[in-house]
Amino acid sequence: EEEGKTRRDQVVTLQDHVIEQMPEYIKQGLFQNINERVWPISRNIPIREVEDRLFDLIQPFVRNGQIELIPENLHEQSECLIKGNFDILVGADGSNSFVRRYCNIQMISEGLEYACGVAYNIPNNIPSSEEPLHQALNCILTASQTRYLVNSSTSRRGYLNIRLIQDEYKELQNRLEIFQSHNEPLDLLDFNKCPQSPIWTIIRQGLQFFKISPKYVFRVIPIEINVRHASIVVRELRHEIDKNEKQTPNEYDEKKYKTTLAFLVGDAAMCVHFWPGRGMNSGMKGAIALARNILRSCTINNSINIRRPLRFLNFLDYEGFMARLRAREQQGRSLRVLIDPIDKSVEASYSYA
To answer: Using CA atoms, how far apart are residues 44 and 49, in angstroms rounded to an integer?
Structure first.
């Protein structure tokens, strides 16, 4: 959070058909603390909880030496990248993926929209008049319009997402820059610092719509929604082998190369619109598909037989899977929102007001 990374506050909806693809011990461990059904065929869970539970679940593999955790950021001069001390590099590092840039994989944008996220945390011991709405009612209110969307855990901690037009987005950026320059906390109850301007009014109306008191808001962030995807999700990399590592002395004058593979998954491979959502689900589907493709490529007659080097052609299944997933989630869901923007409706409402 000190680095400005706020996504762990968000709450996601995991679909049952994705959960069912997980091993049993992961399903049990993932939902051991929070097992909340909001929609009939899915469960709500904070990203913070997903990451923390999965981190706990890999600890036995860390202790027995099967997994080594290296707490550092990759960069161009990382020794493992220069020397190619790996067989597979998986870029699951978000929409601003370093791995994608390192592999020189281009992104293709389908369109832009703007939004803001209003993070809130409602304590347990509060007056009954400030109790949040039931999750079922939050769902009905969210589905009844196309401006506001709430995704929360037990109705108390979550995000109110608000679609904005570009002028509203720019106003929010300017307003938040003032708070940052003065190093002041945001307080929606202070009308001197958050006056009845268009953007603050929109946020307050959304909070009122879902019966969330402004005093429980602890963060507002502008969001640029760039619905885009990587041109490819598998790339072969070549690394020059250091001369000191060569085995045959008379080959010192020749350049030797090692081939490795890089993959993109999650937001590094594809970004969807938050309104129809399923970003976390798409990321998990991609990760499962890649794991299965790796297993097939390293298995012969039910025995593990790791072939080196692995090649791009070994992973045509994964490339094809991600193309089909993109068609389903971007073309089939996100673009339906992009081709029906809220701009005209918002501008008409301003004229009416």
So the answer is: 10
